[in-house]
Amino acid sequence: MESLRQKKGFICDMDGVIYHGNNLLPGAKEFVKWLNDNKKNFLFLTNASNRTPQELRQKLLRMGLDVDASHFYTSALATAKFLQLQKPNCSAFVIGDAGLYNALHDAGITINDVDPDYVIIGETAQYNYENITRAMRLVNNGAKLIGTNTDLTGPSETGPIPACRALVAPIERTTGKQAYYVGKPNPLMMRTGLRILGVHSEDTAMIGDRMDTDIIAGIESGLDPILVLTGVTDLSNINLYPYRPRLIINSIGDIAAE
Q1: Residue 242: CB partners within 8 Å, gap ≥ 6?
Q2: Which of 21, 41, 102, 174 meets the CB 3.0–4.6 Å disulfide criterion with 9?
Q3: Nearest-CA neighbor of 188 among 68, 80, 48?
Q4: Alpha carbon of 236 to those of 26, 155, 219: distances in Å?
Q5: CB 109 within 8 A of CB 63
């Protein structure tokens, strides 16, 4: 634990680490206060693509936690950054919510449902047969298929719900084309997070609740992988994976506890 506290940078997942649904998890306020008091560089990194950083800031404010929008980085922003570097001023057909549309707009990517360079899929409740059909046809006509993240399911107040990879799956199956996924555990997103922090990987911890995204992302990117038990993974299913976190803690507040 002491070596973790000495890290200069902290990259943290959000749902299952800081909050669950619309409720802060125990120790979240104490952890953020500890980060600020100790002048740590920190970034909340989320695979969810539906909210903008400002919306995430407002979500935490409603729970009583004040964090500046500059401390949030989403898979939508990572996707927009990737496409901006791959093909500047490209166009895309998009199935997603405001967070994804805003990120693409800010990166100079235009919306095109006729002959786009890319078909991009993120989380959304606005998912229907017409959109799937159009996406399938555009990919068959040459558009490249992009998923914002690899999560198959996501958390909700009522239990697990389909996430990005589940929404991409019908298009992959009907076209025979494999999507490229940008979010965690893709090292692209992790390296961008490190650049935002301005901290080297060996001086940074990756804290998350999922073995298949957060912990593997930390391991593959050279960060200190820390698992919290307040989200998806518990002690009964850690052994399902051929890799391990360096440290397992009960909650994020354990880091701030003396």
Answers
A1: none
A2: 41
A3: 80
A4: 21, 19, 21
A5: no
Structure tokens at 100: 């994804």
36, two tokens = 């600020």
Amino acid at 40: K
Domain ranges of the chain: 2-75+184-202+217-249, 76-181
CATH for 2-75+184-202+217-249 is 3.40.50.1000
Q: In Å, what is the CA distance from 79 to each residue of 90, 125, 126, 132, 184?
A: 13, 19, 19, 20, 11
Place of tokens 């490229």: 180
Rounded CA-CA distance 45/190 in Å is 9
CATH fold label, 76-181: Rossmann fold (3.40.50)
Cα–Cα distance, 176 to 140 (Å, whole number): 9
**76-181 has the same fold as 2-75+184-202+217-249:** yes
pTM of the predicted model as reported, rounded to 2 decimal places:
0.93
* pLDDT digit string (tens) for the chain, length 258 residues: 999 999 999 999 999 999 988 889 999 999 999 999 999 999 999 999 999 999 999 999 999 999 999 999 999 999 999 999 999 999 999 999 999 999 999 999 999 999 999 999 999 988 999 999 999 999 999 999 999 999 998 877 777 889 999 999 999 999 999 999 999 999 999 999 999 999 999 999 999 999 999 999 999 999 999 999 998 888 988 989 999 999 999 999 999 986
